[in-house]
């Protein structure tokens, strides 16, 4: 069957056509229109501008996804759309568009959880992947560890109590003058600095919990920057990038290791925008080797928001019979009211 996956939860409008044959995925198209340049002047995503940009892009993006795939609307077996969580105005654009398309063409509609979609990207790149596994979702809005027992069944066993890792990267990047979003720029800059130059607290909470807290780390990095500026000393940006990255990566690695030990799972899936971070990918790769486990990470092109991951997650929802109807609404929440 062919599935159209649609994504508009933040600052990327995306549509993709994914073919599924005997449980095997093939990406036929995955068109992503990024609004990064539009939001860059503001140093972050402006929700109303994001919604308006989605409205302008969504029809053309969908046309392009279908024509690149060589698939007609009438051939679609399902339309899958990100319905939660995310920016509400942005989500509403995708949900309403997908609903209209499905309704007008009598195509089954599937509502997708954006977090599960990030994890579903791993099935697209790793054909053999099967639950049970642990999934570490690290993005602009989330830092969570899930025990996944079925493609649609996720149990959250750890999460951030305040900021997400991507949010913290972006904040520090902005303060030291890197272009938005700061994550990718800090990743590169970190290679030029000394990760032990600046002492920063770990985002991994102490003890048995698998939770994180990034606010203390963020504040400590900001205090360091302010102290330098007040003393008329130039901030050593590369050392800060390296030290900040090291704190984030080591903190995440610590909780990932604890989660593997606690659950006995042998596969760790790394997903979400921050999964593109080269230092995190390498560190977790080393960690699983020592733990006798395997690391599954989608290619960088599937780590950020995209329609193909939504189509993959939508396929599993479709398989389990959870179809949406014309009453479908969007929600900003991780766990919307049923
Ligand atoms: O998953 P995503 O595209 O959107 C959300 O669902 O939030 O994640 C976006 C986040 C941003 O915070 C961005 O700075 C971060 O992913 N990011 C990175 C890298 N590439 C993107 N963070 C660290 N290192 C990277 N290479
Ligand atoms: Zn995302």
What features would you describe in this structure?
The protein is an alpha/beta fold. The protein has eleven helices and ten strands. α3 links the parallel β4 and β5. α2 runs parallel beside α3, α5 packs across α6 and α5 packs parallel to α7. 50% of the residues are buried. The mean pLDDT is 97. It binds 5'-O-[(R)-(carboxyoxy)(hydroxy)phosphoryl]adenosine and zinc ion (ZN).
Strand content: 15-25%
- Terminal CA distance reads 28 Å
| Subunit organisation of the chains | single chain
Quickly count the helices.
Answer: 11
Give helix and strand order, one letter per element, not per position. EEEHHEHEHEEEHHHHEHEHH
Task: Please summarize the sheet with the most strands.
Answer: 5 strands, mixed
The percent of residues in helical segments reads 40-55%
Bound molecules: 5'-O-[(R)-(carboxyoxy)(hydroxy)phosphoryl]adenosine, zinc ion
Number of strands: 10
Uncertain spans, ≥5 residues at pLDDT below 50? Answer: none
Strand line-up of the largest beta sheet: 3-2-1-4-5
Silhouette? globular
Helix/strand/pairing category: alpha/beta
Overall pLDDT: 97
Rg, alpha carbons: 20 Å
């Amino acid at each position: 069957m062919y599935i159209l996956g649609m994504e508009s939860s933040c600052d990327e409008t995306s549509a993709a056509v994914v073919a599924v044959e005997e449980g095997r995925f093939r990406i036929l198209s995955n068109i992503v229109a990024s609004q990064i340049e539009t939001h860059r002047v503001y140093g972050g995503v402006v929700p109303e501008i994001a919604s308006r940009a989605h409205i302008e892009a969504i029809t053309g993006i969908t046309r392009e996804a279908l024509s690149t795939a060589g698939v007609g609307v009438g051939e679609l077996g399902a339309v899958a759309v990100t319905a939660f969580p995310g920016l509400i105005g942005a989500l509403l654009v995708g949900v309403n568009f997908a609903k209209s398309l499905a309704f007008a063409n009598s195509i089954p509609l599937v509502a997708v959880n954006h977090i599960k979609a990030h994890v579903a990207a791993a099935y697209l790149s790793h054909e053999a992947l099967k639950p049970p596994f642990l999934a570490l979702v690290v993005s602009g809005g989330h830092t969570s560890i899930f025990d996944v027992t079925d493609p649609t069944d996720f149990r959250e066993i750890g999460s951030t109590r305040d900021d997400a890792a991507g949010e913290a990267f972006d904040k520090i990047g902005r303060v030291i003058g890197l272009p938005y979003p700061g994550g990718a720029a800090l990743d590169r800059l970190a290679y030029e600095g000394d990760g032990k130059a600046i002492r920063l607290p770990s985002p991994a909470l102490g003890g048995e919990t698998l939770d994180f807290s990034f606010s203390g780390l963020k504040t400590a990095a900001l205090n360091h920057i302010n102290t330098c500026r007040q003393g008329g000393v130039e901030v050593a940006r590369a050392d800060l990038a390296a030290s900040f990255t090291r704190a984030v990566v080591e903190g995440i690695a610590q909780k990932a290791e604890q989660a593997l030990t606690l659950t006995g799972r042998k596969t760790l899936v790394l997903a979400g925008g921050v999964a593109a971070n080269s230092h995190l990918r390498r560190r977790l790769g080393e960690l699983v080797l020592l733990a006798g486990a395997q690391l599954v990470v989608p290619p960088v092109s599937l780590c950020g928001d995209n329609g193909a991951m939504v189509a993959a997650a939508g396929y599993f929802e479709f398989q389990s019979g959870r179809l949406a109807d014309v009453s479908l609404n969007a929600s900003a929440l991780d766990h919307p009211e049923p």
